Amino acid sequence: MSAPRAVLRIAGDSPGKRGEDRGRQAREGIRRAWSVYEELFATVAAAHGRTPDVHRLTLRTVEATRAWAPALVEEMEGVAEGAGVPFATVAALNARTEILAEAGAPRAGECSTLVDTAGPGPALGGQCWDWHEELAGAWHPQTVTGDLRSFAGITEHGILAKIGVNDAGVGVLFNILGHADDAATGVPVHLVARQVLGTAGSFAEAVGILTGAPVSASTVITVVTADRAASVELAPGGSAVVAPDERGRLVRTNHFLDPALAAGELRGRREPETYDRHRLLTARVADRPGPFDREALAGLLAAHREDGAEVCCHAPADGRLGSRWATLATVAVDPAARSLAVHAGGPCSAGPTTWTRLTPVS
After folding, report:
1. Which domains can be identified in the chain, with CATH numbers?
2. Nearest-CA neighbor of 25 among 40, 10, 35, 12?
3. Residue 202 near residue 170, CB atoms below 8 Å
4. 323-334: b or e for each residue (b if 16 or more CB lie within 10 Å)?
5. Which of 186, 212, 233, 236 is deepest in the core (most CB within 10 A)?
6. 125: Cα separation from own chain's centroid
7. DSSP label at 183?
8. How far, rounded to the nearest angstrom, does the alpha carbon of residue 62 sit from its chain's CA centroid?
9. Neighbour tally for 214: CB within 10 Å
């Protein structure tokens, strides 16, 4: 059983100061994460006969971010200063999804998300966060204060945000998608999630930020508040808002559900197991009366290959970097309580005492 992770408590009354605080606290973690990502970018690109210029791609995403939300660039500059690493290193970590899209990365074993808004209680959301086993030590829980909204969640070392909930009760869950037009020219999707967590005071504000973000790599960010939820699918050519089903539930894996965006589907064509996970979870949710709690969400997500789809992902003992996927964390978001619970590892190993509960600092 994995031990709870240390929580980084990030603070600062300006973007630069928040970044410096993050950089100082995560200095060694950032260096270790970058050494893996640098190798991962090269390995994935070589497997597809590509040689992307990571520095050039990174600078393109920085310029797009500077035009959209310059404070995010200031915060990344602060991280670099605090950690004593080049700015391009921090910017590349935050743009890792976009760079991997240019490199041609397959995404087998990616995340699965469930949301229940059916009531009678408040909405609840949860997910498996799946990523490369070699980066199992490269993430941490966090609380962040000093922006318009304080927030709590999990992220990777050096990356400003990922999954979380803020003090207005706006939660975000995160699933990568793949579109034929994906590239590294727009605002990184992790920075878009950071903007929602740090500034959105309502469901409508969160959806507005997401649909207005000029992204260049695809993702779906599911917004959950106490009484509402929707998945916002983002792609280079546009966005779409996907509502819960007639029972108030949302199931997300790693393919588009909006018909127009699905015309450019890339991820599902390369790795159709995303459809298997979606079918399995949809059937499990249909058979399970609500409302869900944290333990129920973990139980629904604890599905393995022998169950029909690998939702809870375990890395093989062998294999090369880029092919060893694992569920690195299981997360449950309770927006009504302004709280998030994280278990380090897959849902099959979660228990009553393995969760770390986080709340945004007032």
Report:
1. 8-103 (no CATH), 112-358 (3.60.60.10)
2. 10
3. yes
4. bbbbbbbbbbbb
5. 233
6. 13
7. -
8. 19
9. 14
Given this model, what pLDDT does residue 44 score?
Answer: 86
C-alpha span between 109 and 323 (Å, rounded): 9
> What gap in Å lies between CA 135 and CA 280, rounded to an integer?
27
291 burial (CB, 10 Å; 0-12 / 13-18 / 19+) is middle
State phi, psi for 124 to the nearest 5 degrees: -140, 140
Q: Per-residue pLDDT tens for 94-131?
A: 999 999 998 876 555 589 999 999 878 899 999 999 99
Radius of gyration of the chain (CA): 18
User: Which pLDDT tens digit goes with each residue over 5-35?
Assistant: 899 999 999 999 999 999 999 999 999 999 9
For the chain, the average pLDDT equals: 94
| Residues 56, 151: Cα–Cα separation, whole Å | 32
* CA–CA dist 141, 326 (Å, integer): 18
> 223-243: b or e for each residue (b if 16 or more CB lie within 10 Å)?
bbbbebbbbbbbbbeebbebe
